[in-house]
Design a protein that fits this description.
The protein has 387 residues and is of the alpha/beta class. The protein has 3 domains: 225 residues, HUPs (Rossmann fold); 67 residues, no CATH class; 73 residues, RNA-binding S4 domain (Structural Genomics Hypothetical 15.5 Kd Protein In mrcA-pckA Intergenic Region, Chain A, Roll), CATH 3.10.290.10. The chain has 16 helices and 13 strands.
Length: 387
């Protein structure tokens, strides 16, 4: 049987420095295990659950997870893995996102006394003299050792002074909560070691660094991220979560099974059935077994039997003029712009009662649309009602 350190380190990329986790565990007390999450989007995604599952393992061994909602670091924007400056979110957007994070993380973490939730605005909203004292501890040369910054500098791309501050602020989080261990993805290694350096400056024992693999998104190319549009949110509706999972490339099956389910791909099962089993398991985890069964049945009904969904929302459209402009109708029913709707028509992506609509004409009589089912792509349906 694995030792506690061996159990906690399995599936990790690095546990550094070597032997440090074993030594910290040998102290025989509950450790403070840190994870910081910047609320730059409203939903956590499956990529976040990789590190959340590792945190749950610490909790199950009696340790305390300190979940830091980075409501102040989000105002800076983590430059990790970025080739350009992140867009700035408003304080109102950040606060709205932050309110959802703890509830979502609770789908994986135990939410009893083993969980401590903090917001880094508690200590980062500091007097200017304290900020000066903090940044004096770090040199520009240290910060430019980071790949993200050095590559952008070499390419003559802008790096803001605020971005240079990010690793320092994240590192100070470890000082503020006296972290014993900090977890993060492999793209966070620089930031995690900054925490060790600052703890040493403040007379604390430096934290152990444990990094976990990054989950590749459904595009099969980049890490899962809202920024790349390749994510599956843990609050996504069951049908959407199921359908998106089936879209992953075959070569991701091994890593998704290992990172998300902690088990290998079933032997003797082809990629199609392996994806269906994976999709059922993920939906069941976040929505329950019944929702998983209904999501699978709904997918089969639409994409295998080519039947309509059981429930189709109504969309009312004004018919007083007698003529309806299709791009306007599509944009009103499903969102997006009229130009985007025209493009979908030209690409054959719009159907009426299961029949593809031609790119022309763009204007149709309201009477030819009333009561019929408009479909865009594979998953968007609306029953048209003339008003």
């Amino acid at each position: 049987m694995d030792s506690p350190a061996g159990f906690l380190s399995r599936n990790a990329v690095d546990t550094l420095p070597k032997g440090a986790l074993e030594a910290r565990l040998a102290e025989g007390r509950p450790l403070r295990v840190k994870l910081g999450l910047d609320p730059t989007a409203k939903d956590l995604h499956l990529g976040h659950t990789v590190v959340l599952q590792k945190l749950r393992e610490f909790q199950d061994l009696g340790h305390t997870v300190v979940l830091i909602v980075g409501d102040y670091t989000a105002r800076v924007g983590d430059p990790s893995g970025r080739s350009a400056t992140r867009p700035v979110l408003s304080p109102e957007e950040i606060d709205a996102h932050a309110r959802t994070y703890v509830e979502q993380a609770g789908k994986v973490l135990a939410t009893d006394e083993r969980l401590e939730v903090r917001h880094n605005s508690e200590w980062l909203d500091m007097p200017m003299q304290d900020l000066f004292r903090l940044v004096r501890l770090v040199t520009v040369a240290q910060l430019l050792e980071r790949d993200d910054f050095s590559k952008r500098m070499a390419a003559s791309e802008p790096v803001s002074l605020l971005e240079l501050l990010y690793p320092v602020l994240q590192g100070y989080d470890s000082v503020a909560i006296e972290a014993d261990v900090e977890l993060g993805g492999t793209d966070q290694t620089f930031n995690l070691f900054m925490g060790r350096a600052l703890q040493t400056h403040f007379g604390q024992k430096p934290q152990v660094v444990l990094t976990v693999p990054l989950l590749t998104g459904i595009d099969g190319e980049q890490k899962m991220s809202k920024s790349y549009g390749n994510q599956i949110g843990i609050t996504d509706p069951p049908g959407e979560m199921y359908g998106k999972t089936l879209r992953i490339p075959d070569e991701l099956l091994e890593s998704w099974y290992g990172l998300l389910l902690g088990e290998p791909v079933p032997e003797g099962v082809g990629p199609r059935d392996a994806k269906r089993a994976l999709a059922r398991a993920l939906v069941a985890r976040f929505h329950g077994e019944q929702a998983a069964a209904e999501a699978e049945a709904g997918f089969d009904r639409i994409f295998i039997a080519h039947e309509l969904p059981e429930e189709i929302p109504d969309h009312e459209f004004p018919a007083d003029g007698g003529i309806v402009h299709l791009p306007e109708l599509i944009a009103g029913a499903f969102g997006g712009s009229r130009s985007d709707a025209r493009r979908k028509l030209q690409q054959g992506g719009v159907k009426l009662d299961g029949e593809k609509l031609a790119a022309e004409p763009l204007d149709l009589p309201a009477s030819a649309l009333d009561g019929r089912v408009l479909q865009v792509g594979k998953r968007q349906f609306a029953r048209l009602r003339a008003a």
